[in-house]
Amino acid sequence: MAANKSKKDELLYQSTQMARDLLDYVNFDTAIKTGDVGFLQDFLPRLLFRFVGGKNKNYAVEILELLQGLHREWAADLK
Description:
Mean pLDDT: 89
Largest sheet: none
Number of helices: 3
Strand content: under 5%
Distance between the termini: 58 Å
Oligomer: single chain
Structural class: mainly alpha
Radius of gyration: 17 Å
Number of domains: 1
Shape: elongated
Order of helices and strands: HHH
């Protein structure tokens, strides 16, 4: 009985993660299609953590450089 309980918990955990990832994807896709730049900027740190956690070093560096430019380097009219 205990083994069956742990399988159900793992299934719930994996299902929850998948739903979270799909929701992020749908929101990101909608923001791109509608041109919601504010949402895209707010979503960048979340993408950064996802890329770092997934060991996607090149994407993480790109997001870091984009955040650096947005918040520290670029002039207001360039943003």
